[in-house]
Amino acid sequence: MVEKIHTTLRDSSVARWTALILLASTMFVAYMFIDVLAPLSTMLETSLKWTPDTFGAVAGSEYFLNVFAFFLIFAGIILDRIGVRRAALVSGFLMVIGASIKLYGISDYFNAGGFGYDFFNSFWTGFPGSAKVACIGFAIFGCGVEMAGVTVSKGIVKWFAGKELALAMGLEMAIARLGVFAVFRLSPFLAEKGGVTLSVGVGTLLLLIGLLTFGVYFFFDKKLDAQTEALRAAGDETSQEEEFRISDLKTIFTSKTFMVVAGLCVLFYSAIFPFQKFATGMLESRLGMTTSEASSLFSYFPIGAMILTPLLGWFIDNKGKAASMLMLGSLLMIVCHLIFALTPTESFTFAIALTAIIVLGVSFSLVPASLWPSVPKLVDNKVLGSAYSIIFWIQNIGLMLTPILIGWALKSSNPGIAEQIAAGEAVKYNYTVPMLIFAGFGVAALLLAFYLKALDKKKGFGLELPNIVK
Ligand SMILES: C[C@H](NC(=O)[C@@H](N)CCCCN)C(=O)O
């Protein structure tokens, strides 16, 4: 007699959490790579002649293909069609390929006249060849990392829906933030020992390990699918999953509440991830610190977020209040950016900077912990991959344009400074205008958060309700 299966790996907490750790470890190394150059802006300006606008353009290039080639939209459709495990491998490969190209662009070999050097320096000469190659690599890496983000989100919903969903998402984000902390500590240290190439080289190697981790996850996911299929065949699984159709995407784009969440997401994240790229330079300038000191100080930002995000996830699973948390998170962000922008130099002490960084970390827990687990409440599971990819796509437009805007604002509000730095003078940029721009994004996000709460009250999506079904 064939034994009937009544449970799946999803019902074993050990299997569930192991799947989460496998997915999150790849995101840990991916987030390390995203910010591997972030603490090195000053070093890159002297070694590779990357001015703030060049640095901003390289930072923004991560999102270029996602936005303009609509890669993220395709990534979501591909994910909904080929499933989590295959999409995870595709994204892992893309990250490794892109990172390797970026590594080549900043390498001593390339910059000493290696393959492609003459070509990449023969056009648009105001933008260094090293930065052009770095942009190409980072844009390919960006396709991989964003596809990985969407895939991991859908993967977590697959394992944790109706269980500890927000806690699991919070933990995944916490592990990713730990990657940001690690890179802000490690990257300047490695760069001091072996130059920028060593930092990016180690980052690339770690991504290879991340790809292997996705490979291990593949087998967990396969087993779960086989068990779920067997349950369906035996008639134990009531909710037969409907097939995804492209026309289903219309329901996402026409949902007002979904678009408000996407708007809030792009505004909030535009004042966080791009800020991470400029924060070290801002702290160096405002507190007269070295790169290494400023980078260490800023590393407390992801640490705060890392500790709080899973706790808030647990709270949302059990008590709800996601919409209210979005409002509070946006408000705290405005306060912190205004402190960076407007505190007079004599009052901007180490303690003030540290407090603002930690409070910003709290804001960076409140919004992600409540935003991402709210998405499954707004759309059908069969379009969930596409829904995450559309939100990420809209978010990527902001993440791509904001570093370019900030780099430009920094250069324009500090006329002559780039030239003085290039001439070896010990002058600093003034970051007031860029920080006011970040605060402005926060104000717009807060207004949308108020609107979202009102919409939820009217339409009853249950954003304020707990996730755990008792
Ligand atoms: C979960 C969320 N992830 C994102 O927003 C992704 N689009 C990744 C962005 C990474 C920065 N380039 C998060 O990390 O809060």
From TrEMBL:
Signal peptide stretch: none
Chain segments annotated as coiled-coil in the UniProt record: none
GO (cellular component) term, any one: lysosomal membrane
Top-rank taxon, per record: Bacteria
Bilayer topology term: Multi-pass membrane protein
Reaction equations catalysed: L-histidyl-L-alpha-amino acid(out) = L-histidyl-L-alpha-amino acid(in); L-histidyl-glycine(out) = L-histidyl-glycine(in); L-lysyl-L-alpha-amino acid(out) = L-lysyl-L-alpha-amino acid(in); L-lysyl-glycine(out) = L-lysyl-glycine(in)
GO MF, one annotated term: transmembrane transporter activity
Keywords recorded for this protein, A-Z: Lysosome, Membrane, Transmembrane, Transmembrane helix, Transport
Transmembrane region(s): 14-34, 54-75, 87-107, 127-153, 165-184, 196-220, 257-276, 296-316, 323-342, 348-371, 383-409, 429-452
Major facilitator superfamily (MFS) profile domain span: 19-457
Pfam families linked: MFS_1 (PF07690)
Compartments, as annotated in UniProt: Lysosome membrane
Binding partners and assembly: Homodimer. Interacts with lysosomal protein GLMP (via lumenal domain); the interaction starts while both proteins are still in the endoplasmic reticulum and is required for stabilization of MFSD1 in lysosomes but has no direct effect on its targeting to lysosomes or transporter activity.
Protein family membership: Belongs to the major facilitator superfamily.
Chain's role: Lysosomal dipeptide uniporter that selectively exports lysine, arginine or histidine-containing dipeptides with a net positive charge from the lysosome lumen into the cytosol. Could play a role in a specific type of protein O-glycosylation indirectly regulating macrophages migration and tissue invasion. Also essential for liver homeostasis.
Classification via PANTHER family: MAJOR FACILITATOR SUPERFAMILY DOMAIN-CONTAINING PROTEIN 1
Protein name, UniProt field: Lysosomal dipeptide transporter MFSD1
Organism taxonomic ancestry: Bacteria, Pseudomonadati, Bacteroidota, Bacteroidia, Bacteroidales
